[in-house]
Amino acid sequence: MQPYQLRHLADVVQEHREGLLETTRDLAKRGVPISELEARLIADAGAARLSEIEEALRQEARLRESRHWRLVVPGRSLAARVKSWTRPRIGRLRHYDPKPIQLPASYFRAAPPEPAPTISIVTPSYGQGRFIDRTIYSVVSQAYPALEYHVQDGGSTDGTMSVLARFDSALTTWASEPDAGQADAINRGFERTSGEIMGWLNSDDLLLPGSLATVARFFAEHPDVDVVYGDRIMVDESDGQVGAWILPAHDDEALTLADYVPQETLFWRRRIWEASGAYVDPTFAYALDWDLLLRFRAAGARLVHVPRFLGAFRIHDEQKTTANDEVGLAEMERLRERLHGRVPPVSEVLDRLRPYFLRHILVHSRQRLLDRLPHRTERFDPKPPANWIPPSLLGMTNEDVAIAEDHEIARTRK
After folding, report:
1. Please, what are the averages of pLDDT over each run of 10 residues along the chain (414 residues)?
2. What per-residue string of b and e applies to 199-232 under the rule 16 or more CB within 10 Å gives b?
3. Could you tell me the pTM of the whole model?
4. What CATH number labels 102-377?
5. Mind spelling out the 3-state secondary structure of the chain?
6. What do you get for the CA distance between the two ends of the chain, in Å?
7. What's the CA gap between 23 and 368, in Å, rounded?
8. Domain segments of the chain as ranges
9. Cβ proximity of 255 and 352 under 8 Å
């Protein structure tokens, strides 16, 4: 190991050591029930783990000085394992093999404020018939009392229409008509809404239980906040969890360099939507959410990260990918040039993001330690049951349901 590499990894260890106790104490301030004793236990466990890493680095440095290095340490090196442990998880979409989605039991008991503000959700859709039922169900099954939910489909012919018909009574409105792309569909959808809080959810992603109530309560308790977002999990085509992004507190400077805000967890007030032009820019195919966030920022928005899993991003073969697409890269460069007056090289972007990555590693490590503590969890299955009935129809007779469905079909279809 080269001396500068050892110093760099030692710096990472020191960053962990200094920040771990402070970040665990912050849990109580952020509403996580954790005592000072538990915070110290977590910090001690983390410090012990970091000491092991530090000692492993020293051992490897000594071994590398030995001519018998390759005979003594076969296979993957300790430094490689340390590098993996301290590598940022954000930006990568698969972290481990699929496993069932297990969420804290408190997620399923989240309650909205009273009165509950209206939340307007738009789902742009095209050709996602095999996923959209789970997307819609993840929203309407939360039974949020003031939900305004519109699905804007681009004229799908893959079975989406049968899904929309099934959920007709659970949706506020829906439409299926040709559009000019995702941004156009989102804009058309929001034109049909009036809620105080807004957000869009793509037709293959999910909201997690209690997200709407959590977001509504946070906005109610923080009237000065304009935009909120949370942590994300990643799921595969079969709803198996394959990763998670644990984000640090919001960083305005980091937002000017890269977009690590999980779009499916993003909500904002209508006032900032209108102040920033009230549109999603249709000239973007990939970076439309980053552009919107930057326009929110330019309009004076206060953005806050909520330390909770709010949404799930689905990984599948048909999705758009920015990292390997020339159009996506060009759009990111376009936004950086707009902000900085030039296109900074990738090396500069990564160097300036290093403090943000280190804070991310801290909160991610903290979450891994917390997950090892005893706590109640419940499994989340986003597949709607075959006999599921929309909450709005519960308690109705069969005749009432038929009348309601006929009314919805007549009102929403054009």
Report:
1. 45 55 54 53 56 56 49 47 66 91 95 97 95 97 97 94 94 96 97 98 97 98 98 96 96 96 98 98 96 98 97 85 71 96 93 91 84 86 85 50 42 36
2. bbbbbbbbbbbbbbbbbbbbbeeeeebbbbbbbb
3. 0.78
4. 3.90.550.10
5. CCHHHHHHHHHHHHHHHHHHHHHHHHHHHCCCCCCHHHHHHHHHHHHHHHHHHHHHHHHHHHHHCCCCHHHHCCCCCHHHHHHHHCCCCCCCCCCCCCECCEEEHHHHHCCCCCCCCCEEEEEEECCCCCCHHHHHHHHHCCCCCCEEEEEEECCCCCCHHHHHHHCHHHCCEEEECCCCCHHHHHHHHHCCCCCCEEEECCCCCEECCCHHHHHHHHHHHCCCCCEEEEEEEEECCCCCEEEEECCCCCCHHHHCCCCCCCHHHCEEEHHHHHHCCCCCCCCCCCCHHHHHHHHHHHCCCCEEEEEEEEEEEECCCCCCCCCCCHHHHHHHHHHHHHHHCCCCCHHHHHHHHHHHHHHHHHHHHHHHHHHCCCCCEEECCCCCCCCCCCHHHCCCCHHHHHHHHHHHHHHHCC
6. 68
7. 13
8. 3-85, 102-377
9. no
From CA 357, how far away is CA 248, in angstroms rounded? 9
The token pair at 80 is 């490689």
pLDDT score recorded for residue 37: 53
Q: What span, in angstroms and rounded, lies between the C-alpha atoms of 183 and 154?
A: 11
CA distance 160 to 136: 11
Report the phi/psi class of residue 118: left, alpha or beta, with left for phi > 0 and alpha for psi in -120 to 50.
beta
Cα 160 from Cα 169, distance rounded (Å): 16
Residues in the chain: 414
Q: String of b and e for 322-336 (b: at least 16 CB within 10 Å)?
A: eeeeeebeebbeebb
Q: Helices 36-64 & 3-29, crossing angle to 10 degrees?
A: 170
pLDDT at 387: 79
pLDDT given for residue 59 in this prediction: 59
- Residue 109's identity, in one-letter code, is R
What distance lies between CA 319 and its chain's CA centroid?
Answer: 16
